[in-house]
Design goal:
- The chain is built from 14 helices and 20 strands.
- The protein is an alpha/beta fold and 450 residues long.
- It has three domains: 311 residues, Glycosidases (TIM Barrel, Alpha-Beta Barrel), CATH 3.20.20; 55 residues, Alpha-Beta Complex (Oligo-1,6-glucosidase, domain 2), CATH 3.90.400; 76 residues, Immunoglobulin-like, CATH 2.60.40.
- It is elongated, with a radius of gyration of 23 Å.
- The mean pLDDT is 96.
- InterPro entries: GH (IPR017853), GH13_cat_dom (IPR006047), Glyco_hydro_b (IPR013780).
Length: 450
């Protein structure tokens, strides 16, 4: 197996506009404000968590939330200038942290220059083919003298016709600039589940010519991930199936749900995605904060043991390492994308969860079996699961107990000798055929067998 950085990275996800406290609406008449430098103050914290890759949500000039791009070549004035981003990424790289940006290529803002030209010139616009389904024989719900395709019924987000070579070249030129000027390491493709596959193939081929180990990860919520994760398309996708399975298995006292997904997706014999490295998370900028989703905050601890032990790469959404809460309100995502202050967080929240995540990150980074290993289920009960990860002779057994009770498990493992619990810093001596292990409530074990 080729060793590549993105298969061995602990990711941290920041939504910059919210994180930096930027105004919700952009004012194109204002001078840039270098709010993005706030990230530099968080670098020691990121390193304490073991983070070595940062995924930054949209930060190019946009109308409001960042997913309504106005200019792919210019950093949003609410965050700073192109030099601001260049300096931030340079400092992150100096601290051993790679940087992945949000690539929002399915749609743009109505303030995007080509759409403004289409509005002004109509049939005479040279950009009419840059957008999906433009029809001058009808009108749009927003009063345009033409209709057009958009993202998911949102006509404030005109859809791009990615089969058009000119808009594709416009985007590829922007990515070239992002690599050459900012030295980014990869892209997360917004709504990859509706992106044109030919465009993604062109993007994959192109990106490898400008940076050999460039990482492309797609946001895919539903569908067979193998349609996207292929050598000629993407390196990874979001793992929404396990996201849902992890939290609901805990809330429902039904570990069989996540066990079913893990076995179906990753088992060594016939797992659908056993050869893929998916992007794992317990919350992000589009869903409620995990501390609000769980029915009991105590579940945060077994949940994160799961996150750092199932196949794939783990990601932490900013603030959730403290158990920050947040529930979406109506059509607003501002509550789950807040402006957070590092000093206030350290004062207001216990460090227990943050310390556990730091410990788990350190274990994950130092254990090839967890980062790269095969998956095999050992045992599953309503509130417990045990599985093995193995790679090149290294074997690790993970046990998770989501009940409040301390329990003892007798696992069907044929092993005799010493085992070391790298989570709890304990050593066991298995001298007979019974593999009997005590596990504390709302906790787990990560046992190194060899």
């Amino acid at each position: 197996m080729k060793r590549v950085w993105y298969k061995e990275s602990v990711f941290y996800h920041i939504y910059p506009l919210g994180f930096c406290g930027a105004p919700e609406k952009n004012d194109y008449n204002l001078e840039p404000v270098e709010r993005l430098y706030k990230i530099l103050d968080w670098i020691p914290h990121l390193k304490s968590l073991g983070v070595n890759a940062l995924y930054l949500g949209p930060l190019f000039e946009s109308e409001a939330h960042g997913y309504d791009t106005v200019d792919y070549f210019k950093v949003d004035r609410r965050l700073g200038t192109n030099d601001t981003l260049k300096n931030v990424i340079k400092k992150l790289h100096e601290n051993g942290i790679r940087v992945v940006l949000d690539g929002v290529f399915n749609h743009v803002s109505r303030d995007f220059f080509a759409f403004k030209d289409l509005q002004d010139r109509g049939r005479e616009s040279i950009y009419s083919q840059w957008f999906k389904d433009v029809n001058f024989d009808s009108t749009s719900p927003l009063g345009d003298n033409f209709s057009y395709g958009c993202w998911s019924g949102h006509f404030n987000l005109p859809g791009l016709n990615l089969k058009n070579e000119y808009i594709e070249n416009h985007i590829l030129n922007a990515i070239t600039m992002w690599v050459e000027e900012f030295d980014i390491d990869g892209l997360r493709l917004d709504v990859a589940d509706v992106l044109d596959f030919d465009f993604m193939k062109d993007l994959s081929t192109f990106s490898k010519t400008i940076k050999e180990d460039f990482w492309l990860m797609g946001e895919v919520i539903h569908g067979d991930y193998t349609n996207w994760v292929k050598p000629e398309i993407l390196n990874s996708t979001t793992n929404y199936e396990c996201y849902k399975g992890m939290y609901s298995s805990l809330n429902d006292g039904n570990m069989f749900e996540i066990a079913h997904s893990l076995k179906r997706l990753f088992n060594t014999e016939s797992g659908l995605y056993k050869d893929l490295t998916l992007y794992n998370f317990v919350d992000n900028h589009d869903v409620n904060r995990i501390a609000s989703t769980l029915s009991d905050r105590a579940f945060l601890f077994p949940l994160h043991i799961l996150l750092f032990s199932i196949p794939g790469v783990p990601s932490i959404y900013y603030g959730s390492e403290w158990g920050v809460e947040g529930v979406k309100e109506g059509h607003s995502d501002s509550v789950i994308r807040p402006n957070l202050n590092l000093l206030d967080l350290n004062k207001s929240y216990k460090s227990d969860l943050k310390d556990v995540i730091s410990r788990l990150s350190s274990i994950w980074l130092g254990c090839d079996a967890l980062k790269l290993g095969e998956y095999r289920e050992i045992m599953v009960k309503p509130e417990q699961i045990a599985f093995e990860r193995s790679f090149n002779g290294e074997r690790v057994v993970v046990i998770i107990n989501s009940s409040f009770d301390n329990i003892t498990l007798d696992l069907p493992i044929n092993y005799s000798g010493k085992i070391y619990d790298i989570l709890n810093n304990q050593e066991f001596d298995i001298t007979h055929s019974d593999f009997v292990v005590p596990v504390s409530g709302m906790w787990g074990r990560i046992l190194r067998l060899s």
